[in-house]
Design a protein that fits this description.
By secondary structure, the protein is an alpha/beta fold. The chain is built from twelve helices and eleven strands. The strands form two sheets. It has a nine-stranded mixed β-sheet. Strands 3-4 form a two-stranded antiparallel sheet. The two termini are 31 Å apart. The relative contact order is 0.15. It binds iron/sulfur cluster (2 copies).
């Protein structure tokens, strides 16, 4: 069984217990303005152009069957016309043109992950499937999880929760930990900001809770979008009342490191400030009304 993965991050320490290898699946049903991985949104592989690496050799121009490729070209300019054959990336000698997203078989992917087994064993870590939204490739995810457990690895799934309940139910037996995002509790605000209803997200986390799954709630702290007291108190109340509390909530302050990725795709990133130390402390206090511990950064 094959799936499309756009990155493997080794030695990850914020994606579950211990040292982990995080596998980033391509494709996401949400449209969060603060997304740190805009390259994850489309499910299909895409071209990225890192103009700083270009030596203006012209190999991409010669390779492109559509005569579209040019040195130092902005990736976003290609979107409308590029047919994603990636001949230019194959010809580029410096890695200025790269293909984001690669097809893996589940077995090959797990072989790659398993190279880090000594770190998992030493630290109590394992493998985390993230994205994008890993449940967008539900069958591939299930197979990777099944193989991980067969190899004795601890498994975590980092999900936005916007997925068919049946898909979620099927992975519970193979998933040791769910890292579950709660962004905005007000339905209208959720839909206005990220483009979809939060109803299935809230229903699914309750379903996981009832099924006895281990859940760690994650809350992105995004100034002007998720950081108001009303929203954070509502998250805390939901965790306390619907989920029976949580051993810990991960608070994930927004950072601006992805802005160049947006520009390379022809988008101006949303204008979002990085939260101040005081704003983070205030958010911790509000979330701790859930009765649990809040971990900044996960
Ligand atoms: S991906 Fe193909 S069509 Fe697109 S610019 Fe590169 S060579 Fe040309
Ligand atoms: S092939 Fe790569 S290095 Fe050469 S001009 Fe094209 S983008 Fe630049």
């Amino acid at each position: 069984m094959d799936g499309i993965v756009f990155d493997l991050k080794r030695y990850a320490v914020h994606d579950g217990p211990g040292i982990r290898t995080t596998v980033f699946f391509k494709g996401c049903p949400l449209d969060c303005p603060w997304c740190h991985n805009p390259e994850s949104r489309a499910q299909a592989p895409e071209l990225d152009v890192l103009a700083g690496r270009c030596i203006r050799c012209g190999e991409c121009m010669l390779a492109c069957p559509e005569h579209l490729a040019e040195p130092e070209q902005d990736g976003g300019l290609l979107e409308a016309t590029c047919r994603h054959c990636f001949a230019c990336a194959a010809a580029c000698p410096t890695g200025a043109r790269v293909v984001v997203g690669r097809t893996w078989s589940a077995a090959a992917l797990m072989d790659e992950v398993e190279k880090d087994r000594p770190f998992f064993e030493e630290s109590g870590g394992g493998v985390t499937f993230s994205g994008g939204e890993p449940l967008m490739q539900a069958e591939f995810l299930r197979e990777c999880l099944r193989m991980s457990k067969a190899r004795g690895l601890h498994t975590a799934v980092d999900t936005c929760g916007y997925a068919p309940s049946e898909a979620l139910l099927k992975i519970i037996p193979h998933t040791d930990l769910f890292l579950y995002d709660l962004k905005l509790m007000d339905p209208a605000r959720h839909e206005a900001v990220v483009g979809v209803s939060n109803a299935p997200i809230l229903e699914n986390v309750c379903l996981l809770h009832r099924a006895g799954a281990q859940i760690r709630i994650r809350v992105p702290l995004v100034p002007g979008m998720t950081d108001d007291a009303e929203n954070l108190k509502a998250v805390a109340a939901f965790v306390r009342e619907a989920l029976g509390g949580a051993p810990a909530i991960d608070l994930l302050p927004y950072h601006a490191m992805a802005q160049a990725k947006y520009r390379r795709r022809g988008f101006e990133p949303a204008s979002i400030a990085v939260p101040s130390t005081e704003a983070v402390a205030r958010a911790v206090e509000l979330l701790e009304s859930a009765g649990g511990r809040v971990v900044v950064g996960g």
